[in-house]
Design goal:
The chain is of the alpha/beta class and 346 residues long. It contains ten helices and 13 strands.
């Protein structure tokens, strides 16, 4: 089995009919975004605005936050790298498992990463105990909310405990909320004004199915941080098509609610159906973690169904998999594939 660093690498394989390795919005890219890109195509011969002024205004109104809190980039992954290069943390703290780009960016910036192991007995949920791992020499702490690939929101009180621990240690807290809108969970943006050591990561990639357009941003009340992160980006890090798509997305105020309504029905049904075949872990968002045989990835690929192997996540193993929730018809195809595989092995 080839272990891809991330999901969505269908370019490396042939015959993929259903790509469950990605965790995008199951409703797909919406017409207002497609129209915005098409209708503005004749303007794309000009350089994009390096300050993303129109996008900044639209996002500021949408989030209800000052425009100077925002720094936009070529997806959240771009912002993570720029953030680490700007802050140069000597020691960062992450959970295990979690999104691999945090540790990769810290390493690129010359720092080291300590891992806080999540407990399978607690279904890998992040709890306030995570704050106890913040030490005097910690510079940067990451919290993925909900965590990727485990899919759960952190337990109540975790954000507050981390804010307090980081304040005491003089560390900065980075909360990745790229998947938060899928859950209906509470954003930490209300804490920004009184906590300049808090940084939020957000993206249009997931909720608006804009993975190919690449658009993410960070939020921070500390202008020294936002200016440093901005300075670490290339001059035109956000393309003109991405900017007009982002502006259109900001106007789609009902889209997250419609998405959550779909997931509130589809997610429990799919988890229940999967639970008849494999061990499923609790999920709050648009993706599900489960455990099965280590050869399941290849067996599914042989049938044109691509899963996200979690073998390269610290704290998991080659018998863990993540799937993005898709349309009901696609989810039925996944279940049929798994039932076929498991019936053959009986």
């Amino acid at each position: 089995m080839t272990i891809d660093a991330h999901g969505g690498n269908t370019f490396a394989y042939s015959g993929v009919r259903y790509d469950f390795s990605v965790n995008l919005n199951p409703l797909g890219m919406q017409k207002p975004i497609l129209d915005a890109v098409r209708d503005n195509a004749e303007t794309f011969d000009a350089y994009p605005d390096t300050r993303c002024r129109a996008l900044r205004r639209a996002a500021g109104e949408r989030e209800g936050l000052p425009e100077d809190y925002f720094v936009f980039g070529n997806g959240a992954a771009d912002i993570i790298v720029r953030l680490c290069m700007a802050l140069k943390p000597k020691k960062a703290l992450v959970t295990a498992p979690t999104f691999s780009e945090y540790e990769a960016a810290v390493t690129l910036a010359g720092g080291q990463t300590a891992r806080y192991a999540l407990s399978e007995a607690e279904n890998f949920q992040v709890t306030p105990a995570y704050a106890q791992a913040v030490t005097a020499d910690t510079d940067l702490v990451f919290l993925c909310q909900p965590n990727n690939p485990t899919g759960q929101l952190a337990a109540s009180g975790t954000v507050e405990a981390l804010l307090a621990a980081c304040r005491q240690a003089g560390a900065r807290l980075v909360i990745d909320e790229c998947f938060l809108e899928f859950t209906g969970g509470q954003s930490a943006k209300a804490y920004l004004a009184d906590n300049p050591h808090l940084i939020l990561l957000k993206a249009f990639t997931k909720m608006y199915s804009m993975a190919g357009l690449r658009l993410g941003y960070c939020l921070c009340a500390d202008s020294a941080v936002t200016e440093a992160v901005a300075a670490w980006g290339q001059s035109w890090s956000v393309s003109a098509p991405a900017q007009v798509a982002g502006i259109a997305a900001c106007a789609m105020t009902e889209h997250p609610q419609k998405t959550r309504a779909y997931l509130e029905t589809e997610r429990p049904w799919l988890m229940q159906q999967l639970g008849r075949l494999v061990k499923v872990y609790p999920a709050d968002g648009n993706f599900i973690l489960f455990r099965a045989g280590p050869d399941l990835w290849q067996k599914c690929m042989d049938r044109g169904v691509m899963l996200r192997s979690c073998a390269n996540f610290h704290g998991l193993g080659e018998d863990f998999y993540r799937i993005g929730i898709q349309s009901h018809s696609n989810n039925l195809e996944l279940l049929r594939t798994l039932e076929e595989i498991f019936s053959e092995s009986r």
